Amino acid sequence: MKELLIFDLNPENCVIIGSGILQALKIRKSNDIDLVVTGEKYQELQKTGQFEVKINRNNEILDNGLLEIGTDWFVLGESYDFDKLKKNLVIVSGQRYITLDFLYRVKESWRKDGEARPKDLDDLNLIDEYRKKNSSSLDKGKGSPLV
Q: What pTM was computed for the model?
């Protein structure tokens, strides 16, 4: 992901959240990259002038049309910053992603709360299909740690 390299976004300062893990696992393509970064990295990126400050789900983010960057993600009734997300991540191709299970729990909570968008509901179905296809290897301990 050259977009991450341009801004020196790496496993030491960012976690890819949202549907990024779906693209990493080739479940579906993602149109943008949602990230949680360290506070220091956020300030550094804000100073570049290459991002617009926006509000997304009541959080301030930096947005350049492809990257949406925040310092935390308020999901499942709590705020997950960079350090807290470390408990729910996996490294794929050298980048940190939230686990597929964590993403599923987030989107399922939105469904239950009536906040899910059509694409969130589609993603829940895609994740279920992915799990079914991979269940035999997962049951034998040979599967991905992502599910």
A: 0.89
